[in-house]
Specification:
- About 45% of the residues lie in helices and about 15% in strands.
- It contains 15 helices and 10 strands.
- A hairpin with a 2-residue loop joins strand 7 and strand 8.
- The longest helix has about 30 residues.
């Protein structure tokens, strides 16, 4: 008991020594919150724990006045998001309502007091104590909130998965400065703190390096597959086009690329391309999807169809439209017991060259003059030409084609002045 009384007397003498300080400041009495009083703006020195001794009145209430309001509080202050009166549920809702951009800016631009900032003093543990700026360097996870004069763990405040059982640093500011060393070390060694810091690092990585997050990695893999497939289809299409231009058959005796017997011109040429293209080589050796090899006869026909209709025919129609007037040529041919009509046009191009171009084959169900004339006109309209610009007709001598009464040429003349 004697030592305790002696320490009380020493504290009282120290407080009396500081009492003269209050004669130089403007004082306005106020009622302290819950038995504590706040004093800011004093020039008295702090001890190691940020303690400033001062005199207390007999009724255990100190009459002091805050004389420094500090600089303007930054908008990125976690103390503005987490209020002392908020419940755990309300805090969770407030954090969830923050956009990823707001969280990123909070982490990167949280307010940090300057070296000239004077921290508020709070009477606690027998003396005045305040936050010290050096603590932010000692504990790099810590942020100081000017709004509430307390510190938070910013990572835990934003990314803690279960804050219902958490207190200081997470759901409310830490202000017990006299227990700073003990509580800070206890917090930073906790499991939930380590988990929150990991989540924070992953969040920052996803914001700063979006190519590294899971969704983007999946999208990148998909993009790689699309790029590889396009490269394969391009090689296949160029091989088909080469065979078509050289008027050589595509298919052979077998349809297996590595077959020793003749697999046909198409597959042999594609193997030649694969020798100089790693993507095509890997695709032929082991396609990613067994039902998407792009080398089947069906795919070859589809590519020929696209080339014929979307490129070659489209280009010819454009040239014929530029010439405006043209003549039509048609003849019947039988293939595999099916009647077809070969349809061609004759026109003068922009360089004054007389050209005859094949446009399409048309299957026929009948061979009468009326039906053939109707089919020809429908084909002309289908490919985008104007039948009224026909200036000549050319057929063989068959009655259904050249008859003056029921032939194709007679039926077309009835509709258009050819």
């Amino acid at each position: 008991m004697g030592r305790c009384k002696q320490k009380d007397r020493e504290r009282k003498r120290a407080a009396e020594g500081c009492a003269s300080m209050f004669n130089f400041v403007s004082k306005k009495p106020r009622v302290p919150d819950e038995g504590s009083a706040s004093l800011v703006g004093t020039s008295a020195s702090n001890d190691e724990d940020g303690c400033l001794h001062a005199e207390r009145s007999n009724d255990d209430q100190l009459k002091t006045q805050s004389i420094y309001t500090g600089p303007q509080v930054s908008s990125y202050d976690i103390g503005k998001v987490i209020q002392a009166t908020m419940s755990h549920t309300e805090i969770d809702e407030a954090i969830n309502n923050m956009s990823p951009g707001d969280k990123y800016m909070m982490l990167k631009n949280h307010v940090k007091p300057g070296s000239d900032y004077i921290f508020p003093k709070t009477y606690t543990g027998g003396c005045y104590r305040s936050f010290k700026l050096s603590w932010l360097q000692e504990f790099n996870w810590m942020v100081y909130s000017q709004n509430v004069d307390g510190v938070f763990c910013l990572g835990c405040s934003l990314f803690c998965t279960n804050r219902s059982a958490k207190g200081s640093f997470v759901t409310r500011p830490f202000t017990a400065w006299q227990k700073k060393a003990e509580k800070c070390r206890e917090h930073q060694s906790s499991k939930y703190h380590q988990e929150a810091l990991q989540l924070k690092d992953e969040f920052l990585s996803s914001m700063e390096k979006p190519a590294a997050n899971v969704r983007t990695l999946l999208d990148k893999r998909k993009a790689d597959n699309v790029r590889n497939n396009r490269e394969v289809v391009k090689a296949v299409a160029e091989t088909v086009l080469y065979c078509g231009r050289q008027c050589i058959a595509l298919r052979g005796h077998v349809e297996t690329p590595n077959e020793e017997r003749n697999p046909g011109n198409f597959l042999r040429l594609l193997q030649l391309v694969a020798n100089h293209n790693e993507t095509v080589k890997n695709h032929l050796a082991s396609p990613m999807m067994k039902n998407a090899t792009y080398i089947s006869p069906q795919t070859q026909n589809e590519i020929l169809d696209i080339m014929g209709n979307d490129f070659i025919l489209s280009g010819l129609v454009t040239e014929i439209k530029e010439a405006k007037f043209y003549s039509i040529l048609a003849d019947e041919v039988t293939s595999h017991n099916i009647e077809h009509m070969a349809f061609c046009v004759r026109f003068v191009d922009r360089e004054s060259n007389i050209r005859e171009e094949f446009l399409t084959f048309v299957p026929l169900s009948h061979t009468t003059g009326v039906y053939l004339a109707k089919t020809i006109l429908q084909t002309i309209e289908k490919i985008g030409l104007d039948p009224s610009n026909i200036r000549g007709q050319g057929y063989d001598g068959a009655a259904n084609m050249s008859s003056q009464n029921v032939g194709v040429q007679a039926e077309i003349k009835k509709r258009y002045e050819v």
